[in-house]
Amino acid sequence: MSPWTAAASQSHVDKGQKLRQEGKLEEALTEFQKAFGIDPASSIAEQEMRRTSAMIEREKALKSTPGAEAPKPEERGLTLSEVARKAAEKRAASIMSVPELKPLSREITGLKMVNRPTKVLYETLGKLTGINVLFDAEYNDTRHYSIDLSRTTLDEALDYLALLTKTYVKPLSSNAIFVTQDNVTKRRDYEEQVTRIFYLQNLTSPQELQEVMTGMRTVTDVRKVFPINSQSAIVVRGTVDQVALAEKVLMDLDKAKPEVIVDVLVMEANKTRTRDLAATPTSGGKSGLSANIAYSPAGTGTGTAAAPSGVRLNSLGSIGTGDWVVNMPGYMVQALMKDSSTKVLTTPQVRATDGQKASLRLGDRYPYATGSFQPGMGAVGVSPLVQTQFQFAEVGINVDLTPRIHAGDEVSMQVEFEISNIRDRIDVGGLSQPVIGQRKVNHIIRVKEGEVTLIGGLMQATSSKVRSGVPFLMNVPWLGRLFSSENIENNNAELLVALVPHIVRTPDITAENIRTIATGTESIYKLNYAQPAAMPQAPAAAKPGTGPAGLPALPVKPSAGPAAAPGTETPRSGPPLDATPPPVQGNLAQSPDVPGIGRPTAGAGTPVVALRASATEVPQNATVTVSVNVDNVAELFSSPMRLKYDNKVLKLVEISKGAFLGGDGQQITFSESRVDEAGTAIINMNRVPGAGGISGSGTLVTLKFQAVGKGVSAVSFEDLTLRDARLQPIAVTPPSTAITVK
Q1: DSSP 8-state code for residue 520
Q2: Cβ-based neighbours of 202, under 8 Å, separated by 6 or more
Q3: What does the alpha-carbon distance between residue 11 and residue 13 come to, in Å, rounded to a whole number?
Q4: CA nearest neighbour of 248 among 207, 281, 216
Q5: Among 106, 122, 446, 520, which has the highest number of CB atoms less than 10 A from its own CB?
Q6: Rounded Cα–Cα distance for residues 720 and 518 (Å)
Q7: Strand pairing report for 680-687 and 668-675
Q8: Are 449 and 412 in contact (CB under 8 A)?
């Protein structure tokens, strides 16, 4: 097959793949068939043709199946494996986390119950907050408990009850909880386990990942942990609180490491001074007398022929003075002065991460022999020569630095500093080996940023004096100068090394990382979370008007949008009227709409809450009813409230629900709790989930009081929260009324 055929086939394959990605399966199949026809040996063409045919058959099968949806245009180009992958991703994305409670009301302004069983405590709390309570079938606690909760949240109240009654609470959904006995067996059976993968961003080695994982596992007691070194990730499975604590620990440990740049200043100065003075006889180039008498028979000449090395015995008698040669000494006069100086300044920089070793090498690598060997036996293909092994010595400036950056702009450094050079060469076994001079400093210092620190200094002064000449004569005063030579050498070397650290990244440790958090007991891990701050609500604008019959309009908390009662003149502008209308005689409990009782009439679209009393003045031991009415509300779903009255004047006898919240036939949840000693009543009303809200006007609650003492008692709201079907608050102004007992 020629390269042109393969290239033509591949071009059709590329075109077919592009068409298939666009969802044009038939055109893509045609291109793959063309590619296979051009090059039957093309495996890719055969695979793509088979894969595209399967995609077309799948689409035909979907079209022939009744009720099956046709694939979307962007999904037509997906292969079977890609479709399966996308379905798996969609399925994985739909996996839900642990349920989180979303009650109708998280705030509990007051709840006091004395000598009640556990189930009653939990059910009452559930009614107040709009959550359903399910008990374990095996749970049977007949003991009674007393609680007094004031200004707390649902989560805190559940923790109080669980601690008091030794029970375990598990959320089942957003509005339901499961209660069972708190012991090891029940927790193992019912406590949720969650899985989480943590990706760490600031680790640089598998060893650091192991250290972080070990610390997290030790603190959280999570047993199922696995590190992924290639991803710098940790897979954790444990209880909800254990995994949340592991997240806190890992977030505090996964910090970018501090870094520092260190300026290294190397200053070296060498000075050498040499003086040579000589006035002495010399022999053979050396000072002193050295007479060499050699045998040179006469007649041998001075040619290049070598003199005989020996004498024949029969020639001994003929040896005379002319057969001997003596070298005469010379005389040398020398006066030489040599002065040399060298200065070296090196300023390298080293950047290092906190706790990590950084190395700097400035210089050369010189080889030196470490050994040699020769094969013991000669063989074919084996060299009989000596083989020598070499290693390399780093000569120059070598810096090894391990910094540790502290708070307060301080740096600790473990420094290993070495300056070396080739001082000489010697002959070892026929090989010239270098003699390396070395100056080394190794210590730990702690300095401030920008501070210049001298880590080592060396001052070396060497002086040498050498005299040579004729013995005895060189020691004669003054005369000895003529028969000797003198060499004086002075060497001065100074070395100074300084370090200057500059921090380029400081430790990023915040107050959140070092604060103490509550994590439960020795055997049970439990985390507590702060409640999100509620958004401040702007008070509704009040219109001029009067309050209920017999009461002036409240100047501090005016009714939201009330108009004047019928028969009361309302000015067009100016402040609300403060005059008290004449009291209305008679029992008006059955006629709340009769003019003159001070019922506020809401403006169009403005929700209003009103307290309407059957009478404002009653004799002692008489009864009076107060109804809580709403006007112009939209999609009202729940209405938790807390009422306050004077228990020395009034006694709350009965609380009955009104007909408005369930006026469309839907069921409602109604619960009430009275604390006569404190003069408070807690009432919670809400429609069942899924029923939506109700709009209009009507009565929410009717309160029946008995006059027990003389005086004036105000009936007001300490807390009133109306919520719509989306659980959003409805802005209203809590009203107030007063009842006088004569």
Answers
A1: B
A2: 254, 255, 256, 257
A3: 5
A4: 216
A5: 122
A6: 33
A7: antiparallel
A8: no
Phi and psi, residue 336, nearest 5°: -135, 130
CB distance 634 to 693 below 8 Å: yes
> For tokens 């051009």, what's the residue?
38
Question: Which run of H or of E encompasses 343?
Answer: strand 330-346
Whole-number pLDDT of residue 136: 93
Q: CA–CA distance from 476 to each of 47, 333, 481 (Å)?
A: 109, 18, 8
Write the DSSP symbol of residue 549.
T
Question: Nearest CA to 634 among 661, 609, 607?
Answer: 607
CB 593 within 8 A of CB 665: no
The first and second tokens of residue 481, run together, are: 């100068």
Q: For residue 250, count other CB atoms closer than 10 A to its CB.
A: 20
- Helix%, strand%, coil% for the chain, nearest 5: 20, 45, 35
- Residue 84 backbone dihedrals phi, psi, to 5 degrees: -65, -40
Residue 81 phi/psi, 5-degree rounding, is -65, -40
Which amino acid is present at 706?
Q
- Contact, 639 vs 661, CB < 8 A? yes
Cβ atoms of 145 and 165 within 8 Å: the answer is yes
Pick out the chain residues at pLDDT < 50.
Answer: 303-305, 535-604
Please return the burial class of 26, using the count of CB atoms within 10 Å of its CB with bins 0-12, 13-18 and 19+: exposed
Residue in this structure with the two tokens 């040619």, named with its chain if needed: 303
Q: How many CA atoms lie within 13 A of 43 on its CB side?
A: 0
Backbone angles phi, psi at 144, to 5 degrees: -115, 150
Specify the pTM. Answer: 0.59
Give the pLDDT of residue 574.
37
The Cα–Cα gap between 232 and 77 comes to: 35
- 20: tokens are 């298939």
Distance of CA 468 to the CA centre of its chain: 78
Q: What was the pLDDT predicted at 308?
A: 55
Going from the C-alpha of 360 to that of each of 41, 134, 258, the distances in angstroms are 57, 69, 19
Enter the tokens of residue 445.
């210092």
- Bridge partners of residue 351, in order along the sequence: 261
Give the CA count within 13 Å in the CB-facing half-sphere of 366: 16
> What number of residues does the chain have?
742
Find out whether 496 and 454 touch, Cβ atoms under 8 Å.
yes
Sequence-distant (6+) residues with CB within 8 A of 19 are 27, 28, 31
Q: Give φ, ψ of 90 to 5 degrees.
A: -65, -40
622 beta partners: none
Among candidate residues 128, 151, 133, 158, the one with its CA nearest the CA of residue 640 = 128
Residue with tokens 């997290």: 216
Q: Which residue has the tokens 């200004």?
A: 151
Digit-coded pLDDT (tens) for 134-177: 999 999 888 999 988 888 889 999 999 999 999 999 999 988 99
Task: Return the DSSP state at 185.
Answer: H
Contact (Cβ atoms closer than 8 angstroms) between residue 457 and residue 267: no
Residue 156 region by backbone torsions, left for phi larger than 0, else alpha for psi between -120 and 50, else beta: alpha
Which pLDDT score, from 0 to 100, does residue 534 have?
53
The C-alpha atoms of residue 208 and residue 255 are separated, in whole angstroms, by 12
Q: SS3 for 87? A: helix
Rg of the chain taking only CA atoms, in angstroms: 52
Amino acid at 263: D
The structure tokens listed for 22 are 């666009």
Take residue 411 and report the two structure tokens written for it.
């740096």
DSSP-assigned states of every residue in 296-336: --TTS-SSSSPPPSS--GGGGGG--GGGEEEPPPEEEEEEE
Locate 152 and state its tokens: 């707390």
